[in-house]
Amino acid sequence: MTKVIAVTGKGGTGKTAITTLLIRYLTNKDNLVLAVDADPDTNLPETLGCDVEKTVGDIREYMLSERDNLPPDINKESILESKIYEVINEMPGYDLLVMGRPEGPGCYCYVNNLLRGIMERLIENYDIVILDTAAGLEHFSRKLIHDVDDLIVVTDGSRRGLQTAERIRDLVSELDTHVGNVYVVANKVNSSNREKLKELAIDLDLELIGTVPVDEEIVNRDLVGTPLFDLPENSAALKEVNAIAKRLGL
């Protein structure tokens, strides 16, 4: 049965970096892994070191533009499904699917209704699906991927960051999101605030499953735009993300 993990968080918290390192961990195991970049501000291919030419957004635009030109008796879902498989990037150890730009002007209900069924069938081919999502919860309410087993909220090392995670946790319970577990990962943590963050998480009734330390190697790579996927094994951030993956039962 497929396990679906979604990673979310405010911009700048490092959610894409955490997603990248989780994918790296998974590729070293005997799993069929699908990575999905569901953030319109696409950064996951860059941190993974992948070149992506076409996205699901491109296919969605094509289907919308050709809707009235296709023969009425043709199976439009089959056409869309074949094109979705064309934009899956096969990488060593995992496949990558980039959702791409958000919906433009016009109604996308027609395409999205087709896409929902395709995504549900697609993820059944994998042991683990991991999504790098946008900061909001709209992608869950739209249900392009219906069920999420574990939602990881990445926050920075601050009280405000944990309070944001608390709000996301509460929204998940209020909305019909089909999310199983909600976990919090504090990123860019240092020795002076680690214990305080753990105390705050307890006060807010948040399940803090990891505190990822500030890693100068990540800082330097982000500055020049080089991938994070091949961080050295002695990376402090990598070691903590590996520990988080094990706590998730991966």
Structure description:
There is one protein chain. This protein has helices spanning 15-27, 44-48, 56-66, 76-86, 109-123, 138-141, 159-174, 194-203, 216-224, 236-247; strands at 3-8, 33-37, 89-91, 94-98, 128-132, 148-155, 179-189, 208-213. The chain has one domain (3-247): Rossmann fold. It has ten helices and eight strands. The two termini are 13 Å apart. An eight-stranded mixed beta sheet has the order 3-4-2-5-1-6-7-8, with helices on both faces. The model has no long low-confidence stretch (mean pLDDT 87). It has 250 residues and is an alpha/beta fold.
How many individual β-strands? Answer: 8
Number of H- or I-type helical stretches: 10
Write down the overall mean pLDDT: 87
Mind telling me the C-alpha Rg?
19 Å
Structural class: alpha/beta
Q: Which parts are unreliable, with pLDDT below 50 for 5 consecutive residues or more?
A: none
Helix proportion: 40-55%
Task: Name the CATH superfamily assignment.
Answer: P-loop containing nucleotide triphosphate hydrolases
Please give the largest β-sheet.
Answer: 8 strands, mixed
Domain CobQ/CobB/MinD/ParA nucleotide binding: 5-225
Organism: Methanosalsum zhilinae (strain DSM 4017 / NBRC 107636 / OCM 62 / WeN5)
Pfam families: CbiA
GO molecular function: ATP binding; ATP hydrolysis activity
